[in-house]
Design goal:
By secondary structure, this protein is an all-alpha fold. The chain has one domain (about 10-80). About 65% of the residues lie in helices and about 0% in strands. The chain is built from 3 helices and no strands. The protein has helices at about 10-20, 25-50, 65-80. The radius of gyration is 19 Å and the shape is elongated.
Length: about 90
C-alpha cells in the first residue's frame, strides 16, 4: 500500500472532524472514502461525456421507454462493476 501525506488548514481539519462522526473512526478512513467517491464521479462524468457523443446519432426513432431501459441496463452494469450494494 502506498502512503500519501497531505496538509490541510485548521478550518478544513475541523470540518473533516465534524463530518466523519459517527460514521468513520479515523480521518484516514474518511479521506479514503472521499477519494473513492471522487474517482467514481470522475468515471461517471467520463461515461456521460462518451454517451453524449452518440446523442442524436441514431438513424431510427427510439422511444422514451427504450431509452429508460437502456439507462437502467447501463446503470446496473456500472453498479455491478463497482460492487455497489443497494438497499
Amino acid at each position: 500500500m502506498e502512503s500519501i501525506t497531505i496538509k490541510v488548514n485548521d478550518e478544513m481539519a475541523s470540518e473533516i472532524d465534524k463530518a466523519m462522526k459517527p460514521n468513520y473512526s479515523t480521518k484516514t478512513e474518511f479521506i479514503r472514502e472521499a477519494l473513492r467517491d471522487k474517482l467514481k464521479q470522475i468515471e461517471g462524468d467520463k461515461f456521460l461525456m462518451a454517451l453524449k457523443k452518440f446523442q442524436g446519432a441514431a438513424k431510427v426513432h427510439v422511444s422514451d421507454e427504450m431509452l429508460e431501459e437502456t439507462r437502467e441496463k447501463v446503470m446496473n452494469e456500472l453498479i455491478k462493476k463497482r460492487g455497489i450494494k443497494l438497499d
